[in-house]
Amino acid sequence: MTRDRETGLVKSVNPRLNWVSPSKWRLWSLPRAALAYVLVTDLAAALVTVIAGLHSTVSGKEWVWFAVLTVASILHLEAARSIERRRELAVEGVPYTNLKSLWVFTGVLLLPLPLVVGLAVIAYTYCWLRVYGEFVWHRKIFSAATFILASAAASAVLRAGGLAAAPRVPVDFLSLVVVVSAAATWWLVNYAMVVGAILLSNPETNARAALGDLSEQLVVAAALGLGIAVGALEASNPWVVPVLMVTVLALHRDLLLPQYQRAARTDDKTGLAAPTFWSQVVGAELRRAQLVGGNVGILMMDVDNFSEINNKYGHPAGDQALQSVVRVVRSEIRRGDLAARWGGDELAVLLPGTTPSELAMVGERIRLRLAHTPVTITHAKTAKSLVLDGITVSMGAAVYPDSGVDVDRLVLAADAALLAAKEAGRNQIRLATPCAPVEETGDPEVPPAIPFQTRPARRRTDIPS
């Protein structure tokens, strides 16, 4: 503990334990509609909990099930702590996919609703203490509330299907349909409420962005399906459940960590591949080409005079211009090709199986289309829309094995060709010439670039003032 010199208040070294005046809660900064939505959801969850507590009794067996699920949930969260902490930092403005739903839905099948609420509260409290770093309180309380309301809705489906008494696990086809319907209800209620909160909290966010990556909802489906299996097993032999922890952790790593890694492989601003990931894919393609005797081509391209747009109209305008270039490049390459943002306004494109002439043709097609595609940008100061007649780019091209036999040499050759194109007047493509054999102890020699005969293209008009 430390004492603040100005206020005299005792403050914890753990920022999560510091006292914050209610008047300064971030909750009150939400848009009015979002604030009402969050408060009503929290209140509804509290009322459901109170009403369920007044009408529920808990048997000794249910207490045992609750204890087993609590221990299993804590062990799971602790074992996956490092993964969840990284994912928590990476997620913003999209539904947060986690596997706490596994244990909570298992509780729906085995426990009265008050104990399901207790299970959810324990899970979120443990995450507060051990998993999450700094976080916004009202968001986690809202997430717990959506778990409670989703569990109440799923319990209602189970009762309506004739599965009122625990354990509510499938024993025949009809009961399986009821349990799967309850799982689907749990998912739909929780997902819809979270998406609604995102849309109300961020009015500029469109519905497609708020839905997030729909493929990630397969993680929730896997968790709910595993929850059904865990519930059936615990109903017959609860002490076998801890054995399933290996399976749960394997699912967590195989389903959730790759999503975090995929985010790390992508450039946020353009949606293109990140340089490190792009280099890894190029290396894999080179190894494949070496085995089959094929070619691998790469293009390095730089937007001509890109700084003019940034300097005159602001960086948002530069981002808009860069995104227009990205759209054209994506539309002109094949499904199996891979484009990356190499840095700033420089892009790199991998084109497996292309010869030097084919690579030059692709680059020229991109160059001509960019030069003739109008680009709309917004002036940062005046907020007025301006239209550029087109954007020109300079390109350097290199092909394995002629210009290099590994990633570094190939990129070096293409970059040297790009530099030659810029020095020769920009708005053109240069091909790296074949390189001489490299001694095992010598340094690679950068091959000189040769011009590719280009057709004249209308140059970009002067940027309007």
From TrEMBL:
InterPro entries: Diguanylate_Cyclase, GGDEF_dom, Nucleotide_cyclase, Rev_trsase/Diguanyl_cyclase. Residues 438-465 are annotated as: Disordered. Pfam families: GGDEF (PF00990). PROSITE patterns: GGDEF. Keywords: Membrane, Transmembrane, Transmembrane helix. The chain crosses the membrane at residues 34-54, 63-83, 103-129, 141-161, 173-202, 214-233. Residues 294-434 form the GGDEF domain. NCBIfam families: GGDEF. This is Diguanylate cyclase (GGDEF)-like protein. It comes from Kibdelosporangium banguiense. The lineage of its organism: Bacteria, Bacillati, Actinomycetota, Actinomycetes, Pseudonocardiales.
